[in-house]
Here is the input.
Amino acid sequence: MTAEAHAALQAELERLETDARREIAERIKTAREWGDLKENAEYHDAKNDQAHLETRILRIREQLLAAEVREVETQTEVVGFGSTVEVEDAGSGRRTTYTLVSAPEADPAEGRLSVDSPVGKVLVGARVGDERTLQTPRGERRLTIVTIG
Here is the structure.
């Protein structure tokens, strides 16, 4: 993952372990003061939220422990990890811009593709002007590299 994504995960972990835990503890304390815990929906909701929070904290910790922070490639001649690449689909003529990132950072809606995704794998190693072919469920797709940033 990129150093930026690693820092963002660390910041989220810090926020969850401090502010979020404190908020849920306060909700549980308030709900306990309302009486019978067996029929106290607010108490059960807060405990459920606490379980979800702790699960999220554990997952982030695991991600951070397993993370391999990689430098973003700064060259603009060949597509690689961290490259922002504009491609043109030969079939539709539509141009799309992708940034190749690690799987946990991927967000296709924002143009952030995993280097391990089918499109990412096809683009790695390409140069401007290269045409790469990709097999999809809808058939073959041909992408031409327009720019690399």
User: Anything to note?
Assistant: Helices lie at 3-32, 41-66, 118-123.
